[in-house]
């Protein structure tokens, strides 16, 4: 699937905190985002670093990103990214163009952790750098009737 810049990045009916335990976001199989259990093991994207070019890193919009095919939980992936260099963490694709570019660089195969979660407050998604998740300026990124804390446990 090809993501179009400016398109809603979430899968239809996502995020939905299905089963009261989906608190971390990832690129799904078709490039749209899904919330999932943070304990699932997926590949992950680290970045960006302004000047950190090594083998296995991709330059995207002025920053270097690492696409790791090693499968880890959300916390393990964060720790691996943070272990690369100070200030490095899971990727924060916070612009429509960056959402589409990073998906393209995955080879358009899911699942890839990104640095988005609602661990601190259910329904209040934020990036690992603490910024609120404003994904498409001027547009509401949530599906109709979301977030809704379905089943009293969607974080």
Beta fraction: 15-25%
> Rounded to an integer, what's the Rg over CA atoms?
14 Å
Structural class: alpha+beta
The biggest sheet, with number of strands, parallel, antiparallel or mixed sense and barrel status, is:
7 strands, mixed
Order of H and E elements: EEEEEHHEE
Number of E strands: 7
Integer average pLDDT? 81
Number of helices: 2
Task: Specify the overall morphology.
Answer: globular
What is the oligomer described by this structure? single chain
pLDDT below 50 for ≥5 consecutive residues: which ranges?
136-141
Keywords for this entry:
globular, alpha+beta, single chain, 155 residues, 7 strands, seven-stranded mixed beta sheet
Structure description:
The chain is α+β, with helices and mostly antiparallel strands and 155 residues long. Helices cover 12% and strands 25% of the residues. It is built from two helices and seven strands, in the order βββββααββ. Strands 1, 2, 3, 4, 5, 6 and 7 form a seven-stranded mixed β-sheet that branches. A hairpin with an 8-residue loop joins strand 6 (112-117) and strand 7 (126-127). The chain starts with 23 loop residues before the first strand and ends in a 28-residue tail after the last strand.
